[in-house]
Amino acid sequence: MADHRRKWNREEYEQKAEKRKQDEDEAAEGKKIKSSPKVPLQARKYRVDLDSKIGKSSIVSKTTNQSQSGGYFCDVCDCCVKDSMNYLDHINSKKHQENLGMKMEPERSSLESVKNRFQAFKQKKEQNQKGTEYNLESRLKQVTDYEEKEKETKREKRKAKKRKAAEAMSEFADVDPEMTAVMGLTG
Predict the structure, then answer these.
(1) How far is residue 101's CA from residue 41's CA, in Å, rounded to a whole number?
(2) Per-residue pLDDT tens for 73-105?
(3) Is the pLDDT of residue 153 over 90?
(4) In 3D, which of 119, 41, 51, 125 has the Cα closest to residue 88?
(5) Element (H or E) spanning 32, and its range?
(6) For 110-128, what is each residue's pLDDT tens digit?
(7) What's the count of helices (H) and strands (E) in the chain, helices before strands?
(8) Mean of the pLDDT values across residues 29-57?
(9) pLDDT of residue 107 exceeding 90
């Protein structure tokens, strides 16, 4: 009777495994890309534009490019997100930051840099305080001038309204006064 069990040729499969391992090693050597050293996490130097797509509509078909389809497209990660909340989550995500070449750790501050930062804020505060000295008399004069201008414009509006009413009445001068009173056109 014939033996139905499969017979393995150990030498043949060892050679195949060795060849496959060599091929994988050669392919891996060709694909090796030196990654640049990652930069510590930094604040964005641009404003994220979420308002540009509000109220806009676009036609999306199956053949439309992903970057032109509905939603927000990320060039760095080559993905499309459908709403602004998910887009913000995406651009703040670890995956996106790594694709930008950043690590998720902020730069460690030294004592000297913190002192310099405090000094800069202190100088800025002093400059703002110097620039905001108020002169009470000049401010009161500005307010009174503004109020006088407002009163004058109101007077002009009232005079213009009276002139228009007088012109309308002059049109009806030849009409019976009782009739104008009944119509409510009397001033």
Answers:
(1) 9
(2) 888 888 888 888 999 999 999 999 988 888 888
(3) yes
(4) 51
(5) none
(6) 999 999 999 999 999 988 8
(7) 6, 4
(8) 76
(9) no
- Which residue type sits at 166? A
Among 95, 93, 48, which Cα is nearest to 72's? Answer: 48
Which amino acid is residue 86, in one-letter code?
A: N
Q: How far apart are CA 41 and CA 114, in angstroms?
A: 17
How far is residue 106 CA from its own chain's centroid? 23
- The tokens describing 131, both together, are 């620039």
Q: How far apart are the C-alpha atoms of 183 and 185, rounded to whole Å?
A: 6
Rounded CA gap, 96 and 72, in Å? Answer: 14
Decide if 165 contacts 187 (C-beta within 8 A).
yes
Q: Which residue has the tokens 């510590």?
A: 40
Residue 110 token pair: 């030294």
pTM of the model: 0.43
- Per the structure block, which two tokens stand in for 29? 């050597």
